[in-house]
């Protein structure tokens, strides 16, 4: 099959993108569910709109979107659906409705029992990757509203993570949740074993009575020793990084209340409806994806900065890093050919205004910089109005400066106010030039609550799905992750060969050196 870069539709798309302006005159705001997405400072023109429509058609977007929502095989390398939208649908598709509603009812019953009997003042959630970032983001972002319980998270296999999560808790009033799709994840099981030891050391006779498992492999959880009534299921058609909508949301409901989890699901469902029904030109996830492909594949931007101007959303950055980079970090297309255009930018960032004092210098004056997604809440959840005005002012000012820049003439006039030497003024002015022309997207939530957070996460999910369709790659597998995990297991077995000389023949020289050195202590 012809390489993507050589297809006429792709060439037309690239030409239209390069010739389209970053418009600061026309305001292009898309209202999606309750969220406003301002794409005014992304490339846009009638020619690009037409070319984008043709590209989406060539790449089979309409069919791919139908398959996503109808349970088609969109995860083609593992021959299964990616049906996370079914988990938040008001009326789930008939093929999976009974399973979904049964698990939702079981989860609600467990939460109601815990609440009515005042069980578990403390909850420690053990998971990693998709089993961790979603619930961690939700709990940490929304906990200021209503925190019924203390919720802590442990993901890293470094024992400092689990010991810090357990420190200071009452072991008699602590629930341990182990969330793992396969229930074979090395990090999570190692941390679970540490939690068992902690409970036993504190005279808990049956530690596993205080464990809950959330998994797609109930048998492994039973074999671990967790009782059936404490095992909550999701399915292999739920990708890990999309699993927050399943029973993985348990810590959200325990910490913030069942209503918070339900509101997140409702918000995500509202964004699903927008993605399914809005015309392409007014479809926020699709237009964000098209802008992302223009920025990365056509204009050559290698990264995307995410700057939420709300300190509570600090975990949105690693959540999106995983969603984008684990989903899109691929270079093989459906037909097995290598993708021959740049894809999957590096995602990085931190909340504003901290980011302004950390990396915005690079964004403004490095020769190329990076596109930026700004996320802002229109209303705060505090009474410090001046703080919020300052936050809004900084967000809008940075976005404007990235677009407009500062010319040499403007910089020179500025310098001349304090520097009388013309030659030195000209030199100093060059240091104050800002190229401008940096693409940005502004996402405005009415305020930060569970519903709007659900909408925001689903917005990015559908954006990433559309990018994958445009590039012809599978966003639902992660073979790179699996390869590294297999190697780690092999190295661990050799490190365990204490007192012997481990076989290091399979490894490169450096790895072999460190296996031998660290195995010997």
From TrEMBL:
Pfam families: PGI. GO terms for cellular component: cytosol. Keywords: Cytoplasm, Gluconeogenesis, Glycolysis, Isomerase. Gene3D superfamilies: 1.10.1390.10, Glucose-6-phosphate isomerase like protein, domain 1. It catalyses: alpha-D-glucose 6-phosphate = beta-D-fructose 6-phosphate. Its EC number is 5.3.1.9. The keyword Phosphoprotein does not apply. Catalyzes the reversible isomerization of glucose-6-phosphate to fructose-6-phosphate. Belongs to the GPI family. This is Glucose-6-phosphate isomerase. It comes from Sheuella amnicola. The lineage of its organism: Bacteria, Pseudomonadati, Pseudomonadota, Betaproteobacteria, Burkholderiales.
